[in-house]
Structure prediction request, 221 residues.
Amino acid sequence: MSDNKELVHIALDGPVAGGKGTVAHELAKRLGIPCLDTGAIYRGIAVYMKQYSDKENFDIFINNVTNAKITAKIIDNVTHIYIDGKDVTGQLRENDISQLAAHTATFPTVRKLCTKISQDLAANHSLIAEGRDICSVVLPNAKFKFYLTANIKVRARRRYEEILKKRQDISFAQVLRETKQRDKSDMTKGGLVKTKDAVVIDSTKLTVDEITGLMLKYILR
Prediction:
């Protein structure tokens, strides 16, 4: 599959560490459709907030963040973020940016801007988008919709093992608590919802190949 007269949009939602990112990139490889990481957009907005706001004017600033000149481009299946035309992708994975992104993503103005940036890309390109509210808000008319989840202990274990690659001063119990808190935040403020028209896949006991295979059965039938 590739871009043609009929754009193909695949929406993939689910809670943290459900496997969305890995599966979305695998689908992208097999289908030849670029993968949009909406999380990178939120991180890009966080970079913008860090650069231009401060504690004194944060509330005013975040209420006007929709005026920010932030754009996204997918290059070799990596979502690049630009602020005022400058590529800031290299800053997206910094620890303080991750924390700020999780906080600012709960604000309606930030979610509105992220949605606009994502929809601007989707207006001209076939793409696979993964996030929290892709099926319900960002791409409500997507041809294919999936909701990928897993047992919370399995998801916490995945996060724990990923964090251990970068730092050692954390316990599984702490990560499990944080995962539960993240789920609550995502479902109450972060827009996470399981739409009725999304195919639900539980990845608890499935490999990436198995999950991808299930999705391809729906997409290619």
About this structure: Strands lie at 9-13, 35-37, 70-75, 78-83, 86-87, 127-131, 144-149, 199-202. The radius of gyration is 17 Å. Residues 145 and 198 are 5 Å apart (CA to CA). The longest strand covers residues 70-75.
